[in-house]
Amino acid sequence: MPAANPIRFLDTNVLLYAYDTDSPAKRFKAKKWVERGWQSPGEISISVQVLQELAVNLERKKVSKGEIHQILFDLSAWPVVDNTLLLLKLALGEQLRWQISLWDAMILAAARSCGAEELISEDFNHGQDYDGIRAVNPFRG
Q: Is 0.85 surpassed by the pTM of this model?
């Protein structure tokens, strides 16, 4: 039996670029990750925080509320890590250990809680192993 694909966690910036017409090269690469999320159910995870940040940033880009709501409802079909008190406590530990912002620590804690092996983000150090989660910058190179 073939091994299952590793779980990957998608950070907000990747999703945002998938809807950004101002950065065509990044948009092309980001859309590939979104397509992968639809083609391989369960392989790509996100969090409530990612959905919240995506909504705020799309609104800043003057995307209509109706379109934003549809995007969020669609993406909520993927595995989504809820914001909980336990996740916050885990993030506080990640923040201290890696000396990162609380927001990045919440992303890392969410990735860890869903069993992700890779964190797809341009905000983390590409190639760094965060104790079992490897950061991958999809826009590098």
A: yes
